[in-house]
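hey can u run this one w/ zinc ion bound, need the structure tokens asap thx
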Amino acid sequence: MLPLKLIYHDLYDLHLGSHVFPSQKYRLIHDRLLADGSAAPEDFLAPEPATDEDVLLVHTADYVRKLKKGTLSREEEAKLEVPYSKELIRAVWLAAGGSILAARRALADGWSANIGGGFHHACPDHGEGFCVIHDVAIAIRRMQADKAIERAIVVDTDVHQGNGTAEIFRGDSNVFTLSIHQERNYPHPKPPSTMDINLPDGTGDDDYLAILETHLHHAFNDFAPQLLFYVAGADPYREDQLGGLALSMNGLARRDAMVFDYARRHGVPTAIALAGGYARRVEDTVKIHATMILEARDAALRAAKGKPA
Ligand SMILES: [Zn+2]
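ok here u go:
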């Protein structure tokens, strides 16, 4: 049995067909982990959908009403870049419930991963860039409202800057937001995170890992988080269709291991959400995410053994 619970629901899959956003990846990751023996059925927990009360901790009442009633304007719907449907709303409410459950399990067990979510472009009053509601922010706000935590850090390694995260937590000294991303890529403009690392096009493994390590060092030493939310984008991969960085599969695995190592050494409970991944071959995206889960497993096992740094 895995040392961390994996949060997953079959209805995360939106069946979008040939859309560049591969919503089937959630199911494919789940199936791959089971098929290769990395996980067993009992390692997975199915979330309940977030409640509207949860969602309203982050999003405006007006936006939530429009989503539920299907009354977004044509422009608002176009900005989402995924087709509006009842199934979409059901899936993103479930993904938000999944990130809430991942946060709860991380606080209880030390580690947990939502095999979904990471919708870091969603803002309080609108969605954009495949992101309808901000599951990670909703989970953090839920944990704070429940008095389970005060301070959280979001480490976002998706190739695109976490503009929704930056907007939602702007000026909030209890939530440290770190985003490492390609500078010349969506979104424009980029509202300031607590720490933004703007990378030039074509950045490869060694440069990426060196700069990430320096910033993780400062973030974890300057701020004593009670929860890490890792937004583990697969799209810094060199074969990504929407990214312009040049990380290898091995570099991405080393990136994940580095983030988990910081969390482990600082004793910070870690919840994970997936975010983007648009490799030319969907199986590459699936492999990157599945490898990330195995890195989390290894970190959790090391933490359980109490191995020194
Ligand atoms: Zn992305």
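The longest helix spans residues 86-109. anyway lmk if its weird
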